[in-house]
């Protein structure tokens, strides 16, 4: 009976490994490493502030995040079908969630003002838990809900989701400060779309055809597939290695002393434009910058010595500038 008649969309995962999936995951990892390398260069002062968070690099980062979540959705279906294997699922979940917690702790100790409280690994772990509810649904329903998840943050936001303990949902009006923020919405969308399309592929027998497709025996292909099969280890190791390389280079050839002002204004505008017009954000960010400078608060704020939570003057300035130009 067809899954469109109400049967589960797939009855069991394929027993054959799909090399194309390993290859795709490996390519996504290499793309992520290239983006993080640009971020590291910016962090150490070799690129202009805001370079990695706007324009083509911003779109590049979003495409990479979407591909990881899409592939995670694909993998959930291929690993379990509609017959969940609890031991295997919990083992994988513990690895991903444990790695996410470790990253949160490490970044909190290193950069407490913008630590990673809900990054890509957090999103994958949360999406995997939610994805369990979709394993038995028809693929079309899963696909449709995935599309809704993509659209929802664009049409509805609420200030109730602004606190950091709720911002991870993704319906905030003011995004939190974080060096890697991947909220559940809209990023649950590509995960469910991956699940839905894989459900369609399994129900039509396309996965067996994909499993029969070779990806070559060249060293590049073998290395890419190897990284794809060990994606979590690659994720955890690559950034410390890249940072160590850039740091070593900085000891030999130090970057010019950075001016924090352009970077602050750029980050302010990026955050503001998530919920307001470009014209308002230009005026608002100029106002906030001028007030911080006039009250000798700019340097303490950008260096993290004071925050919005620790110094009431910061939110007061934001409210004053909002009222002036709204």
Automatic annotation (TrEMBL):
Cited InterPro entries:
HGSNAT_cat
Q: Which residues form the Heparan-alpha-glucosaminide N-acetyltransferase catalytic domain?
A: 17-240
* Keyword Membrane in annotation: yes
Keywords annotated in UniProt: Membrane, Transmembrane, Transmembrane helix
Regions that span the bilayer: 59-81, 93-110, 116-134, 139-156, 184-202
Give one Pfam family, short name only.
Answer: HGSNAT_cat
The identity of this protein, by name, is Uncharacterized membrane protein
């Amino acid at each position: 009976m067809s899954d469109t008649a109400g049967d589960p969309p797939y009855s069991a995962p394929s027993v054959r490994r799909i090399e194309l999936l390993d290859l795709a995951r490996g390519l996504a990892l290499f793309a992520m490493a290239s983006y993080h390398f640009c971020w590291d260069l910016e962090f150490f002062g070799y690129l202009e502030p805001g370079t990695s968070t706007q324009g083509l690099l911003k779109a590049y980062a979003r495409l990479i995040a979407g591909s990881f979540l899409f592939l995670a959705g694909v993998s959930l279906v291929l690993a379990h079908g509609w017959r969940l294997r609890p031991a295997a699922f919990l083992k994988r979940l513990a690895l991903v969630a444990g790695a996410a917690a470790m990253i949160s702790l490490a970044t909190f100790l290193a950069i407490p003002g913008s630590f990673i409280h809900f990054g890509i690994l957090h999103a994958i772990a949360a999406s995997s838990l939610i994805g369990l509810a979709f394993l038995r649904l028809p693929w079309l329903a899963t696909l449709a809900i995935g599309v809704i998840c993509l659209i929802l943050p664009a049409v509805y936001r609420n200030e109730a989701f602004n606190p950091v303990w709720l911002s991870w949902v993704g319906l905030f009006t003011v995004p939190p400060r974080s060096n890697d923020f991947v909220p559940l919405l809209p990023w649950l969308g590509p995960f469910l779309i991956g699940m839905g399309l894989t459900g369609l592929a399994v129900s039509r027998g396309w996965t067996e055809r994909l499993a029969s497709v070779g990806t070559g025996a060249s060293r590049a292909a073998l290395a890419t597939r190897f990284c794809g099969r060990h994606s979590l280890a690659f994720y955890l190791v690559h950034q410390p290695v890249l940072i160590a390389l850039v740091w070593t280079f900085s000891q030999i050839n130090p970057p010019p002393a950075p001016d924090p002002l352009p970077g602050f204004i750029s980050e302010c505008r990026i955050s503001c434009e998530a919920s307001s017009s470009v014209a308002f954000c230009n005026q608002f960010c100029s106002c906030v910058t001028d007030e911080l400078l006039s009250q000798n608060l700019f340097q303490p704020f950008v260096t993290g010595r004071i925050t919005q939570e620790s110094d009431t003057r910061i939110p007061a300035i934001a409210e004053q500038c909002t009222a002036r130009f709204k």
